[in-house]
Amino acid sequence: MVQMKLHQKKRQVMIFITLILSWEAGSESIRYSVLEETESGTFVANLTKDLGLRMGELAARGARVVFKGNRQHLRLDPDTGDLLLNDKLDREELCGSTEPCVLPFQVLLENPFRLFQAALVISDINDHAPEFPAREMQLKISEITIPGKVFPLKMAQDLDAGSNSLQSYIISSNPNFHILTRNRKDGRKSPELVLDKALDREEQSELRLTLTALDGGSPPRSGTTEIQILVLDSNDNAPEFAQEFYEAQVPENSSLGSLVITVSARDLDAGSFGEVSYALFQVDDVNEPFEINANTGEIRLKKKLDFEEFQSYQVDIEATDGGGLSGKCSVVIKVLDVNDNAPQLTMSSLTSPIPENLPEILVAVFSVSDADSGHNQQVICSIDDNLPFVLRPSVENFYTLVTEGALDREERAEYNITITVTDMGTPRLKTQHNITVLGHFPGHLVDVSGTGTLSQSYQYEVCLTGDHRTGEFKFLKPIFPNLLVQDTEKEIKESPNCRNNFPLGGSRIHYKGDKQLLHLDITTGNLLLYEKLDRECCAGQQIPVYCFSNYYWKTRGTGTLSQSYQYEVCLMGGTASGEFRLLKPIVPSLMSEVAGMDTAENANFRN
């Protein structure tokens, strides 16, 4: 029932973020590649050529480059069409160990609207050497250990990716050991020391070897550490874990101290040689969120998890007995995603005000995203149903907001639109974005110099509202439809750039000497009849009416030159009724004087 009500109130559009939608305006896909650490301003490509556009079309159509999260890694010169690096890119910072490092972006053309999909591939350079967590590591090996025994060693780390990452390990020449490079499930490579010849504590109680990690660069980079091997007197058994591999799952919103899993090892020796203690085999950034109880083997959470940062961990655990012998196991911990990220809305383009008399005007272009995964990543985008606007999905996670039909500014001059983006997780999270869309008159001309506004001429029908002796009458309706004039009790609706401000004292017309015939009230816009009209004497009058910009008022020597409008007033019937109307405006002219003041010439509006 709740879903049915929601469907009735909202116009909904569902999009799966990971699904690429096909649309005629955005099916193109372009991929560019640059090396990391390339200098800012480096030429990447020419979009005019690659998109098959004409020279200058990018600038004319308002082209822009849009990256997720508004990070502008590229900048576009719309005049030349050149796409340039906006800053020096660090592949390890942008993508970590992910390979390839791909940064999707869109090329947005606003007028007419079109969207091109593109991607920037950051190629790795070998700018990092492998590095061990410590300069020295220590092993304790019993002299009765049988050849072929494998001893895991701590790994080196290399921040580079692909062939430039860590590839292999080598060890200094010696008669007792060789080294193996093991490929782990998490993609990393770990070293293992293999005993080739039995040790004799009486012959040599300590050995020192050099372990070297090599990457695949050309030339390769390397890192080293020293291995100190202490040969122990007879401790017949090393601890052994119940399992070589453990698996566990933990929700990303688990509280600190939560139990993840318990590992267990046993040692068949007696006394202190059979006592086992547990520890993390290697402490680094990867296994930092976890800790282990040395006595019980319980692994607990000591730092908050974030599925969007790491989806799984492989933690190595070491069990050591009282004689220094040790065993090792691995625990794979999978992080379960919960709906902890609200959808994000990025506004790429917004047009306001918009014309009132054109249908399907593009108002806004925006994209939506959700950092969660799976079902939690799916989103619904909607606006209120009672608005004359509609949302349309375009390419991938982009939407356009367009008018559903022609708008009528006289009916409504402003629309407040709330765009709601809701994900499909539990609980559902949402983001709202408010925009205001204004309408304007299509016939209005704006002086782009900023010093004045050129007004539009209008025609009105008027009729006598009462006894002709009072002379009161009202505007009926504008013949020219762009301006609506209501009755004398209400204000005249205004154009946003030109308000009907009348000069002080109103406009007067003298008839038969110095008698005032008509008076235009500056407060209400009412045109008042002061004398009885005589059609046989004078059937028409010209009435100058002034419209000033809402930003300027005329003062002596400064300000904006007003526009003069003249109308013919015609008596409609006999003198008994006093009914008359404004016929049509005579061609507007500039008045040389208003209310006794000289009119200054406007530099942007001339005869």
From TrEMBL:
Organism superkingdom: Eukaryota
Gene Ontology CC, one term: plasma membrane
InterPro entries, sorted: Cadherin-like_dom, Cadherin-like_sf, Cadherin_C, Cadherin_CS, Cadherin_N, Protocadherin/Cadherin-CA
Regions crossing the membrane: none
Subcellular location: Membrane
Membrane topology: Single-pass membrane protein
Name of this protein: Cadherin domain-containing protein
PANTHER family associated with the record: CADHERIN-87A (PTHR24028), PROTOCADHERIN BETA-6 (PTHR24028:SF104)
